[in-house]
């Protein structure tokens, strides 16, 4: 539901809701042939499933930028990755009745604004990277006397897959729909496990988000006279929305299938700088790859990331115990209580509205609301929601209870932030005093780089070629001993930006200290002290041994509201809306607009996309919201 870290919080608080997926793997014979998984056999997880729903955007995005292999070069490779991934998911679940494939169509207008801003930002970043690549080409040509091999230029200008293509209305989405239809027809004709499946494909031409199209289908099946209430559902996706939507269906047998995002096995990682397994870019040391076999023919690749089940039924049992209130003046209904819990989660985060400032899931914001709800449930005389509709008077009670705790929450948060900042500065000062330059506590001045005792005195060499062994050594020299570089964050830069920084640094150093060039040097760019190279400063090797003062921490934007100080509500409206703090009527308008949006979001999750005019009519009589929290 757009709640950051929701899955991590749920799995740590309710550990029994998670279990690993038992997965059969294809058999590889000695001659290299592969025997596929027989999906007609019983499910190895010990339970058979009826319906499988695939939120395809949760498959397309990981396939466009995989963690364990290079990104697909073109759309053909992209489709093959999607087919392989989807086939693996279907083999895990082995549905017996229905397979539904839902691709995101046009989203509700309330979400399109957020999507549009995100995609414009992504396009701007892509344009900036392309500009950096063009500048890098010019620098490389200058270093090589105006000559640059076509292979090197193609490597630099290689374009990554544009994630903005995964948008309704693009040619890519049309190709995806056609490819999925072809692949499903192929599997129906060749795979016995698919023979009796009813397959439903909802592509990007059908409006609505993928997960909500799936939920509309589930609700329509529940309304059918011949619906089996013991139908076992599995939905695949990466969004926390799916957990809340699974609860909102009130189906007794519902599971969410997803990758184990906490799987941190070393061999499953692939470095984006050197292309080797066993470490990430931040910890790369540029070491040459060890071959498995004479020609690396025995390399088995990286381990597949495991999958996990999230049992919605077990989560409902947890919530039944946690939300139970003794001695109620009315009968306790666990399904109504779960609906109220979903409603309270909307205050912590959702895909449409900002969360309340006092509520953070890492600060137990959901627990805070749950306690307020339990304390006030006997007084309210009933539940806050019913079938996706909000009882505003009872919701007012919850918000009033939160308002009483708001000041204390903001002050505690500020105290914790101050303590973290003080601890960070203390540790940084200790590391500097102890001569530790790196985050991992490594030496600030390494004794050797590539076997050289004093790399600071090694002079820079001009580039003679940017291909073959020189290119390999270039990568090695760029990233060697990177863990000893303080505050190095090369992993977050594009390869073009990194290489450009190295070339610019070389050019400035060559001007500062000219020397004779050895054309047979093993390094294409020459060597400097690793920390100086990573930081990209303009110092010369002669001054590298001089102590450097610690760089001051970058200051963030000035916080004019200061939530931890008294009077923050007045400052908020004055700074954010440029309104007079005494204009109470404007605060009521903001509160009313927020509640309108909240009512729309809840109905969207329970009944499908509602009419905005209908929501406005529901909220209109309740414009007199005056609680402390709602006016902020």
Automatic annotation (TrEMBL):
Reading the lineage from the top rank, the first entry is Eukaryota
Has the keyword rRNA processing been applied to this entry?
yes
Subcellular location per UniProt equals: Nucleus
Protein name in the entry: 5'-3' exoribonuclease
Quote the EC number.
Answer: 3.1.13.-
Biological process, per Gene Ontology = DNA-templated transcription termination; mRNA processing; nuclear-transcribed mRNA catabolic process; positive regulation of chromosome segregation; rapid tRNA decay; rRNA processing
Renumbered to this chain, region (Disordered) spans: 111-132, 278-297, 413-452, 507-561
Q: Which UniProt keywords apply?
A: Coiled coil, Exonuclease, Hydrolase, Metal-binding, mRNA processing, Nuclease, Nucleus, rRNA processing, Transcription, Transcription regulation, Transcription termination, Zinc, Zinc-finger
Lineage, top ranks: Eukaryota, Fungi, Dikarya, Ascomycota, Pezizomycotina
| One GO location term (cellular component) | nucleus
The cross-references to PROSITE patterns, in alphabetical order and at most eight, read: ZF_CCHC (PS50158)
**A single GO molecular function, which one?**
5'-3' RNA exonuclease activity
* Organism listed in the record: Fusarium oxysporum (strain Fo5176)
Compositional bias annotation for Basic and acidic residues: 413-424
The enzyme class is hydrolase
């Amino acid at each position: 539901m757009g709640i950051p870290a929701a899955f991590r919080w749920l799995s740590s608080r309710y550990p029994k809701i998670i279990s690993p997926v038992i997965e059969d793997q294809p058999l590889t014979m000695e001659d290299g042939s592969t025997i596929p998984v027989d999906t007609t056999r019983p499910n190895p997880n010990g339970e058979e499933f009826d319906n499988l729903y695939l939120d395809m955007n949760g498959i397309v995005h990981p396939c466009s930028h995989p963690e364990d292999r290079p990104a697909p070069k073109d759309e053909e490779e992209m489709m093959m990755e999607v087919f392989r991934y989807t086939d693996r998911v279907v083999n895990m679940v082995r549905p017996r009745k229905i397979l539904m494939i839902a691709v995101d169509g046009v989203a509700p207008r309330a979400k399109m604004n957020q999507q549009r801003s995100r995609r414009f930002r992504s396009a701007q970043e892509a344009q900036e990277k392309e500009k950096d690549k063009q500048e890098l080409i010019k620098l490389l040509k200058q270093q090589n006397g105006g000559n640059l091999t076509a292979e090197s230029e193609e490597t630099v200008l290689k374009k990554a897959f544009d994630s903005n293509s995964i948008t309704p209305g693009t040619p890519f989405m049309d190709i995806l729909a056609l490819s999925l239809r072809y692949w499903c027809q192929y599997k129906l004709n060749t795979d016995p496990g698919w023979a009796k499946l009813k397959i439903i494909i909802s592509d990007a031409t059908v409006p609505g988000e993928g997960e909500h199209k799936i939920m509309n289908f589930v609700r329509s099946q529940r309304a059918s006279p011949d619906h089996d209430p013991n139908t076992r559902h599995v939905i695949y996706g990466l969004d926390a929305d799916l957990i809340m939507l699974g609860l909102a269906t009130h189906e007794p047998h519902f599971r969410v299938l997803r990758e184990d995002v906490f799987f941190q096995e070393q061999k499953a990682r692939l470095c984006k700088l050197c292309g080797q397994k066993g470490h990430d870019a931040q910890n790369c040391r540029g070491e040459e790859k060890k071959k498995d076999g004479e020609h690396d023919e025995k390399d088995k690749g990286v381990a597949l990331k495991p999958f996990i089940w999230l049992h919605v039924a077990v989560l409902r049992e947890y919530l039944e115990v946690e939300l139970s209130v003794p001695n109620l003046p009315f009968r306790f209904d666990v399904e109504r209580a779960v609906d109220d819990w979903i409603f309270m989660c909307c205050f912590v985060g959702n895909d449409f509205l900002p969360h309340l400032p006092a509520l953070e899931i890492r600060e137990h914001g959901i627990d805070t609301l749950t306690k307020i709800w339990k304390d006030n449930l006997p007084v309210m005389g009933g539940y806050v929601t019913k079938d996706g509709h909000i009882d505003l008077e009872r919701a007012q009670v919850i918000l009033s209870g939160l308002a009483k705790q708001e000041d204390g929450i903001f002050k505690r948060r500020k105290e914790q932030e101050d303590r973290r900042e003080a601890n960070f500065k203390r540790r940084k000062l200790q590391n500097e005093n102890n001569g530790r330059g790196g985050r991992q506590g490594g030496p600030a001045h390494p004794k050797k780089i590539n076997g050289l005792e004093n790399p600071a005195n090694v002079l820079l060499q001009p580039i003679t070629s940017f291909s073959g062994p020189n290119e390999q050594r270039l990568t090695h020299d760029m990233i060697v001993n990177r863990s000893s570089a303080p505050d190095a964050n090369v992993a977050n830069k594009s390869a073009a930006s990194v290489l450009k920084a190295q070339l610019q640094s070389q050019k400035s150093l060559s001007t500062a200290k000219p020397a004779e060039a050895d054309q047979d040097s093993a390094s294409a760019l020459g060597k400097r002290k690793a920390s100086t190279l990573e930081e990209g400063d303009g110092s010369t090797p002669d001054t590298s041994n001089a102590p450097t003062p610690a760089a001051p921490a970058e200051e963030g934007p000035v916080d004019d509201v200061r939530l931890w100080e008294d009077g923050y509500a007045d400052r908020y409206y004055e700074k954010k809306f440029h309104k007079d703090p005494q204009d109470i009527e404007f605060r009521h308008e903001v509160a009313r607009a927020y509640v309108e949006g909240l009512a729309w979001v809840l109905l969207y999750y329970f009944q499908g996309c509602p009419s905005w005019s209908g929501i406005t009519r529901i909220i209109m009589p309740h414009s007199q919201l005056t609680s402390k929290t709602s006016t902020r």
